């Protein structure tokens, strides 16, 4: 089924044997098609026409021959009669009445002569008459042709001239031509039979000749043309249905069908296995988005070609979706499947040259096997995919083999999604608030709204369960649930902030986390506008925390959306700054107000000079761009001191408080502010 062209790419040479037979059948059926032509009504008409023409031509010829034959017969009859008549007329001329009487009687009874009349040579007067009187008589001065006058088709009158008779008479004779007529009829029937036979024969010969010389080549050409078109169409449909147009590799449909077939035909032999590998290019989306689809396409082509080259000829390499490849290969029971993943990694190792630039790519690989990891192609591939996502989650650039507990994880995830949807409907979600402080004055300046989910007990006796946002937010993002959840958070956080303000709590800036999915998928601008309008919260008290990933996904649309948000008057902060793609160039282009240094740098800053340097760099860079800097993860006084030294503006962390539910948070704010005021008073008194 597969072959390699000069470039090493695996190409499709045809379909299954059965498909080939179907494709070639029109050519094989060429002779049958020919036979069919004659069987049809059109064919019959052609045959009848040819037969008719042949018959007509032969009929005309035969008629002429019949005429000639008749003339000859009658001429013979005339000659015979003349021979019989001459002696009798002689006798008459010599006036021998007795002989004449006897001979005339013989003549009339035993020859074809039925009667005759003798006319004078000069005046054509009737001299003698014997038997029937012929209707034909000589006319004076006329030359008589040696023809006859036929009457009723059976009687023939002829005139013999004196030179023919040898006496000075013209003799008119009535002849009995019944014998000639019979002969003619018999001759006619015979001729008709022969003509019919000949016509049939000639028609057959002509038809065969026409078949062989004219129609057959025509039909054959037609068949060949049809066959070619048929093949081309089949190939095209086949290619579209089974092959990926970019890489020329088989697609998912082909891959699954082939895998099913291999399973069915036991291609793996006794006790053998079929290894299935899912291969995914790491960060392909980023490459595609940041460098353009042209580079992305080229990369896919190169990866496809390299995989095909690197793997054994029996392996089937396919492109399943955007950046996912898959391969399958029957293996002996003792064979080491990791050889395959090693070959995959080795093939990707060298940099890829695209448009004079060199790219280093990595891939993640998931492996599963028939029959251990599934009974059907679909199941085996699905489990290879599960192993692949495991490989991606566990650091990428690596391989994971499917195992049963993977699918348990997947099922747990599915359950989590169902529960989360219920949580949203049944109001199990709530917001906690994490205060933020001005590091110099110590004042509370804001709070970050953080989502909390307390899942109620599922059965009697079981307690309710706290689920960390770190666990359920990624699941909400993958399932798309983050969009309604994020909307709920925004509405709730804004409504509470406004309510606090109305209740006389000193105004606080409310930071709300916005997921990348929510940012790009939902109409975030209209949502924010709507929420601000409905809650009447002045926009400057709302801050949206965005992560760096949203800039990578689609930079231009991110700029547009952020510009519109900024025009609404809300503030924008970059969350977890320093951990993402850290392309500092975007800072200038985006309307950002605040950078939030990731807690990992804060946590490590006391031990690691590098992390402190990073904090310093972020602060300097941010300030040079007129941005405020806030640090999260501040757990100790030393963290606070360090951040203050480095010029950080604001802090957030467990040193001050854990995230708190609303009532506790408000209590905290109240006491904190009172304490702060008191400490200031103390300071002033001092
Ligand atoms: P984040 O936005 O970076 O939130 C800060 C996280 O760090 C919070 O964890 C907070 O409790 C924790 N944190 C702050 N200071 C300290 C500290 O001093 N020590 C320690 N150990 N932790 C500290 P949390 O609440 O578990 O949230 C985790 C992540 O979940 C958040 O990271 C955010 O990405 C996401 N998340 C939480 N709520 C929402 C939400 O409403 N919407 C979205 N889209 N994501 C949310
Ligand atoms: Mg945050
Ligand atoms: Mg953060």
Question: Which properties best describe this structure?
Answer:
single chain, 686 residues, alpha/beta, Alpha-Beta Plaits, TIM Barrel, 3 domains, eight-stranded mixed β-barrel, five-stranded antiparallel β-sheet, 24 strands, 20% strand, rod-shaped, binds ligand C2E, binds magnesium ion
Q: How would you describe this structure to a colleague?
A:
The two termini are 92 Å apart. An eight-stranded mixed barrel has the order 15-16-18-19-20-21-22-23, surrounded by six helices. A five-stranded antiparallel beta sheet has the order 4-3-7-6-5. A five-stranded mixed beta sheet has the order 9-10-8-13-14, sandwiched between helices. Helix 9 packs across helix 10 (338-349). It has 686 residues and is of the alpha/beta class. One magnesium ion binds next to strand 20.
Number of distinct beta strands:
24
Q: Sheet with the most strands?
A: 8 strands, mixed, barrel
Globally, the shape reads: rod-shaped
Number of helical regions: 23
Our count of domains comes out at: 3
- In terms of DSSP E residues, the strand content is 15-25%
Strand order of the largest sheet: 15-16-18-19-20-21-22-23
Quaternary state of this entry equals: single chain
Mean pLDDT: 84
Percent helix range: 55-70%
* C-alpha end-to-end distance: 92 Å
Sum this structure up briefly.
Helices cover 55% and strands 20% of the residues. It is of the alpha/beta class and 686 residues long. Mean pLDDT is 84; it is low at 1-31.
Task: Present the secondary structure layout.
Elements: E1 2-4, E2 10-12, H1 17-28, H2 30-39, H3 41-93, H4 97-110, E3 113-120, E4 126-131, E5 148-151, E6 155-160, H5 162-165, E7 169-176, H6 178-242, H7 252-264, E8 273-281, H8 284-291, H9 293-310, E9 316-321, E10 324-331, H10 338-349, E11 352-354, E12 357-359, E13 363-370, H11 377-393, E14 399-401, H12 404-425, E15 429-438, E16 444-455, E17 465-467, H13 469-479, H14 482-502, E18 509-513, H15 516-521, H16 524-535, E19 542-547, H17 549-553, H18 555-568, E20 571-577, H19 585-589, E21 594-597, H20 599-605, H21 609-624, E22 628-632, H22 637-645, E23 650-652, E24 660-661, H23 662-685
Parallel strand pairs: 13-14, 16-18, 18-19, 19-20, 20-21, 21-22, 22-23
Antiparallel strand pairs: 1-2, 3-4, 3-7, 5-6, 6-7, 8-10, 8-13, 9-10, 11-12, 15-16, 15-23, 15-24, 16-17
Helix pairs in contact: 1-6, 2-6, 3-4, 3-6, 8-9, 9-10, 12-13, 14-16, 16-18, 20-21
The structure holds ligand C2E and magnesium ion (2 copies).
């Amino acid at each position: 089924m597969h072959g390699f062209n000069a470039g090493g790419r695996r190409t499709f040479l045809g379909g299954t044997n059965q498909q080939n037979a179907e494709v070639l059948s029109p050519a094989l059926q060429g002779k049958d098609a020919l036979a069919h032509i004659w069987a049809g009504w059109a064919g019959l008409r052609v045959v009848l026409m040819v037969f008719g023409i042949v018959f007509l031509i032969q009929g005309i010829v035969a008629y002429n021959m019949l005429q000639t034959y008749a003339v000859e017969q009658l001429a013979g009859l005339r000659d015979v009669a003349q021979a019989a008549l001459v002696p009798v007329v002689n006798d008459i001329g010599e006036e021998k009445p007795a002989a004449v009487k006897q001979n005339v009687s013989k003549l009339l009874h035993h020859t074809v002569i039925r009667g005759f009349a003798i006319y004078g040579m000069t005046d054509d007067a009737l001299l003698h008459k014997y038997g029937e009187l012929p209707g034909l008589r000589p006319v004076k001065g006329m030359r008589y042709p040696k023809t006859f006058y036929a009457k009723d088709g059976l009687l023939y009158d002829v005139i013999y001239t004196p030179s023919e008779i040898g006496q000075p008479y013209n003799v008119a004779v009535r002849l009995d031509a019944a014998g000639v007529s019979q002969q003619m009829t018999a001759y006619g029937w015979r001729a008709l039979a022969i003509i019919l036979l000949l016509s049939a024969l000639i028609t057959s010969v002509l038809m065969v000749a026409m078949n062989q010389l004219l129609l057959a080549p025509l039909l054959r050409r037609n068949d060949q043309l049809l066959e070619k078109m048929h093949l081309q169409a089949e190939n095209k449909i086949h290619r579209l249905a089974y092959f990926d147009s970019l890489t020329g590799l088989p697609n998912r449909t082909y891959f699954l069908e082939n895998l099913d077939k291999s399973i069915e035909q036991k291609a793996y032999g006794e006790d053998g296995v079929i290894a299935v590998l899912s291969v995914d290019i790491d960060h392909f989306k980023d490459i595609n988005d940041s460098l353009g689809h042209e580079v992305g396409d080229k990369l896919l082509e190169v990866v496809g070609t390299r995989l095909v080259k690197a793997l054994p000829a029996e392996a089937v390499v396919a492109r399943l979706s955007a950046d996912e490849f898959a391969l399958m290969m029957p293996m002996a029971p003792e064979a080491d499947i990791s050889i395959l993943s090693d070959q995959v990694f080795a093939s990707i190792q060298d940099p890829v040259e695209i448009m004079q630039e060199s790219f280093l790519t990595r891939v993640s690989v998931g492996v599963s096997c028939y029959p251990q990891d599934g009974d059907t192609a679909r199941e085996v591939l699905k489990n290879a995919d599960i192993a692949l996502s495991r490989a991606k989650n566990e650091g990428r650039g690596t391989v994971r083999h499917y195992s049963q507990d993977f699918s348990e994880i997947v099922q747990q995830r599915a359950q989590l999604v169902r529960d989360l949807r219920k949580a949203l409907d049944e109001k199990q979600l709530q917001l906690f608030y994490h205060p933020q402080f001005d590091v110099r004055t110590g004042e509370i300046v804001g709070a970050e709204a953080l989502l909390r989910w307390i899942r109620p007990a599922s059965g009697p006796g079981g307690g309710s369960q706290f689920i960390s946002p770190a666990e359920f937010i990624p699941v909400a993002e993958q399932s798309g649930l983050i969009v309604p959840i994020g909307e709920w958070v925004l509405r709730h956080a804004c409504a509470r902030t406004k309510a606090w303000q109305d209740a006389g709590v000193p105004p606080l800036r409310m930071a709300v986390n916005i997921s990348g999915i929510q940012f790009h998928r939902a109409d975030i601008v209209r949502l924010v506008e709507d929420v601000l309008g409905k809650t009447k919260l002045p926009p400057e008290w709302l801050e949206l925390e965005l992560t760096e990933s949203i800039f990578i996904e689609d930079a231009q649309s991110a700029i547009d959306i952020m510009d519109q948000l900024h025009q609404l008057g809300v503030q924008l902060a970059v969350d977890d700054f320093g951990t993402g793609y850290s392309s500092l160039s975007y800072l200038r282009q985006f309307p950002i107000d605040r950078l939030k240094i990731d807690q990992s740098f804060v946590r490590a800053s006391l031990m690691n000079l590098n992390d402190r340097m990073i904090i310093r760099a972020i602060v300097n860079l941010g300030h040079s761009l007129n941005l405020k800097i806030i640090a999260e993860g501040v757990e100790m006084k030393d963290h606070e001191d360090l951040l203050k030294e480095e010029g950080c503006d604001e802090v957030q962390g467990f040193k001050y408080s854990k995230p708190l539910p609303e009532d506790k948070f408000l209590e905290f704010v109240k006491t904190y502010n009172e304490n702060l005021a008191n400490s200031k008073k103390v300071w002033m008194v001092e």
